[in-house]
Amino acid sequence: MRLQTRRNSALIFGRTLSVGEQRAYTRGVLRSFIDFVIDVGQSSHDTAARLLERIECTEGEAGYRAARATRRGAIMVTAHMGSFEVGLAALRQVEPRVHVVYRRDASGPFESMRARMRRRLGVIEAPIDDGLGTWMSLRDGLFNDDVVVVQADRAMPGQRSQRVPFLHGHIRIPTGAVRLARMTGCPIIPVYTVRLSSGRFAVYMHAAIEPQVCAGATIDPAVLAVAESLESMVAKHPQQWLVLGAAFEEDVEHA
After folding, report:
1. HSE-CB for 64 with a 13 A CA cutoff
2. Is the dihedral of CA 128, 77, 139, 114 positive or negative?
3. C-alpha distances in Å from residue 32, one per residue of 36, 46, 83, 172, 244
4. Under DSSP, is residue 24 helix (H, G, I), strand (E, B) or coil?
5. Could you tell me if 241 and 194 are in contact, meaning their C-beta atoms sit under 8 angstroms apart?
6. Is 210 helix (H, G, I), strand (E, B) or coil?
7. Which residues contact 210 (CB under 8 A, 6 or more apart)?
8. CB-based contact 188:159 (threshold 8 Å)
9. Contact (Cβ atoms closer than 8 angstroms) between residue 203 and residue 192
10. Per-residue pLDDT of the chain (255 residues; tens, 9 = 90+)
11. Which CATH number applies to 2-254?
């Protein structure tokens, strides 16, 4: 784990960290990961009101409301950082139907806690393990002006993705969200929930991405826009990016 975070840090910061910097960075990432697991357990018993109390500030809400005023549905892309559960609680305050795309976890107890939390928040689970049926259900939901939430910073084995520049290296961005947005004509809105030094959270809503078709582009412009949004958040909050394995394509190729 130390070796992998060291490799990741070199491509995040663009240089080899000193021993002290590396120790601080690695401990910060592990601390964020532990906080995330604890949050899932606690959130499975918390009410939506209790989760909302943990939000200290929100940025970009006006742009979000403007994008949603078109009533075309929306795909929210986010990253493995901060607290996913707090972000869902905030979203459910303004959206009656929220679908969460996820892959079932190998850990039974963790998956049970996560499922219990989602039931308490009233979100609709959309396991991609179930294949085409899940994507058709999401398509229908977007046509009905629902919201779909997708993690966009990690491509799973066998998942369709595109290699994009990211900080001082390259990562693979899953293309499912962009393809689904084009199919339904809905915008993509990046949303992130970041832990603050106070222990509470900030919610950041970035500008909506309209996934127009651009024939002949080496990298899909919409996928690149998603990557640039993710990149800006990781650059500002590197210790909160919950990646303990190989994050960059250069590292995968080296291995």
Report:
1. 20
2. positive
3. 6, 20, 10, 23, 11
4. helix
5. no
6. coil
7. 187, 188, 222
8. no
9. yes
10. 778 888 899 999 999 999 999 999 999 999 999 998 888 777 767 777 888 888 999 999 999 999 999 999 999 999 999 888 888 888 888 899 999 998 877 777 777 777 777 888 889 988 888 788 899 999 999 999 999 999 999 888 788 999 999 999 999 999 999 999 999 999 999 999 999 999 899 999 999 999 887 777 788 999 999 999 999 999 999 999 998 888 899 876 554
11. 3.40.1130
Bridge partners (DSSP) of residue 194 are: 202
255: helix, strand or coil: coil
236: burial class by Cβ within 10 Å (0-12, 13-18, 19+)? exposed
CA distances from 2 to 6, 14, 168, 249 (A): 6, 18, 20, 18
- Angle made by CA atoms 149, 80, 171, in degrees to the nearest 5: 100
- Answer for the pair 201, 138: CB distance below 8 angstroms, yes or no: no
Rounded distance between C-alpha atoms, residue 22 and residue 11, angstroms: 13
For helices 19-43 and 2-13, the axis angle rounded to 10 degrees is 110
Six token digits for residue 71: 């009533």
Placement of tokens 């393990």 in the chain = 129
Q: In the numeric block, which tokens belong to residue 147?
A: 């919201």
